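hiii, so i know i said id send this last week but things got crazy w the move. better late than never?? heres the sequnce for the chain we talked about at the cafe, plus the structure i predicted for it. fair warning i was half asleep when i ran it
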Amino acid sequence: MSGALLVAGTTSDAGKSVVTAGICRWLVRQGVSVAPFKAQNMSNNSMVTADGAEIGRAQGMQAAAARVQPEAAMNPVLLKPGGEDSSQVVVLGRPVAEVTALSYRPMKAALLEQVLGSLADLRARFDVVVCEGAGSPTEINLRADDIANMGLATAAELPVLVVGDIDRGGVFAALHGTVALMPPADQRLVAGFLVNKFRGDVRLLRPGLDRLSELTGRPTLGVLPWLGGLDLDVEDSVGIGRTPASAGPPHGEEVLRVSVPLLPRLSNVTDLDALAAEPGVLVRYATRPEELADADLVVLPGSRATVADLAWLRSTGLADAVARRAADGLPVLGICGGHQMLARTITDDVESRAGTVPGLGLLPTDVRFAPEKTLARPVGTALGHRVRGYEIHHGVVTVDLAGEAAAEAFLDGARAGSVFGTTWHGALENDGFRRAFLTEVAGLTGRRFVPAPDTDFAAVREARLDRLGDLVAEHADTDALWRLIEAGPPEGLPLLPPGAGFSPP
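okay and structure toks below
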């Protein structure tokens, strides 16, 4: 068996990533070896594989759903936005260029060869490859050189399942329009639909599903119910901050409130997932100084544009609020880009090319950006516990503890009183260290908060992946999915006007 399927979506955030993960988990439960694949990902949430390659966090999560180790072939092209019209291009885990939207397009023909080579490699080693599209498959202004959606599907003859998000409304128009705007060569590969995030009695939806099938000649292969708490390793900040995240009542007497400045170029926001999974820890996102006022801990997260996001932090007044907290002895944690912002100076002739700018000056550190990106998976000790993490950064932090009696080393960074900084992502996923850190925070704030002694974040993630597999097993037409994976696109699918008259520019 060497099957494959492309999961596309009517929009960004329709649920492609979680549906792909759910299909991977369902398949591996059937004894099938399966790998996820996303040809081109645009995300600042990334991870480092065992061999030092950088890929999207979503593909790492999907690999976990498939119970395989993540690798560069699963996400051969990663675009990391750094400004309004610039992105870093990462190919097979290594940065190769900084591009604008227009300068990137001439690169895509060569990248399609790389993408198809990676897909072929995975198909040779796994029974099934579940591919995830990017954005919408009907971006008609981009179709001519597409490598992530229908360009990939037509080149590799992949059957396509289109996911629609009913929670945002207009799902029937979105599903029908997605097919209708495609040229014939693309339409013939779209085998069916999947409705995602449904709330209510599915019988109320049946007349619409039947009419959609009549209009398109394609079945709906499942209606997945709304299920909260499944935003594992999201690709971007779409939807972040809509609601506070908390795992429930505290183990001790009080909750801990964590506020996170919602940086414009926020990266690796998944660092906060482990905190949000801890009972009694409330994680929320802030854009105004007053939203930090009652926080027990402020976390400055990662950033794809440290200097620009530091300027935003100052312009909003959040920087002053963070400085006041530190002066009052209240906890602040900086991670990667957030750690860099806490330094005395930042010298950046690589990313922003701003030269030397002042940092917040809350740690005895200085930062200099290096042309080469650091990609690593370090191991160390902090607060009496073994810690594993991963590093993705150009900024190199120099720690100066001489003459700083109150400062000490902390996970390749520094601690000065109530201010902590580390370049390591993923440190909070280490259960013992996370509990020790939260205990330290509670002590600094005078809270009667006690971390739950048995929170196992790896088990929490595994349980969420099982719930995704259950969604597919219980609410999708798995027999139809098997047929698509084994046999490929069905023959004789009808063409919809005006798509039959449309051809890519």
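btw The CA atoms of residues 346 and 357 lie 5 Å apart. thought thatd interest u
miss u guys!!
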